[in-house]
Amino acid sequence: MKQKKSSKASLEDRKIFFLLMGFVMVLSLVYIGLEWTNTQVTVYEVVDMSFLEEDELDDVVQTTQQETPPPPPPPEPDVIEALNIVNDDVETATIEIRTEDDKKEVVSIQAPVAAPVIQEEDEEVIFQVVETMPQFPGGDAAMMKYLRDNVRYPVIAQENGVQGRVTCQFVVNRDGSIVDIEVVRSVDPSLDKEAIRVIQSMPKWKPGQQRGKPVRVKYTLPVNFRLQ
Asked: How far is the C-alpha of 219 from the C-alpha of 169, rounded, in Å?
């Protein structure tokens, strides 16, 4: 026969309760143990200073370090003022100061004077080559015709059978006249003389020009002498 127990007598239902109560008691003991300390009380004794005599208090003197004062500055030298007395009759230089009113004056600026133009003395200058060479009236063809019509073969040269080319040079002036005839290549004195004579008898040439102005030009002209 199975024996039944009373529910009041059973401790299994209160097991958890007792466990929680044990935890609470343990925590309480730990807290009490931590908070339980020995408190030290310090007692300060008040000393009465009235028993000290005034003489003893006077003996206590506060000492301070005295600083050495700086040396006094050296005495300043005596200054003697010298007055330079200037006579009133001495003339002084006068300085002229221009004010703003003076700036209103009209300043006239004169145009620079042009230097005189020096014309070249080209009357004595003889050119060898110019822009426009001098020319016989009517051109080279007219000049060759003039030589054929005016050259006279010298008799002595014909008898001796002398012939050749005589080269002459001369200067054509600005007015077309011919001057300074000379023979630069000679063949025979008689032929040279005839060549000079024919050139001297020529009419005035058309003068040579340089920069649009007539100038003197040296011209070279060969004169042929040939026997027929």
From this structure: 6
Quickly count: other Cβ atoms within 10 Å of residue 205's Cβ: 21
| Tokens describing residue 23 | 């935890």
Alpha-helical regions (H) of 46-139: 54-59
CATH of domain 126-225: 3.30.2420
d(CA 107, CA 99): 15
CA 94 to chain centre: 42
Tokens 């003022």 identify what position?
81
Domain ranges of the chain: 126-225
- Report pTM: 0.47
Task: Give residue-wise pLDDT tens across range 15-29.
Answer: 788 888 888 888 888
Whether 169 and 184 have beta carbons less than 8 Å apart is answered as: yes
- Any residues with CB less than 8 A from the CB of 191 and at least 6 apart, and which? 154, 157, 162, 163, 164, 166, 225
pLDDT digits (tens, 9 = 90+) for 129-178: 999 999 999 999 999 999 999 999 999 998 899 999 999 999 999 999 99
Contact predicate 228/171, CB 8 Å: no
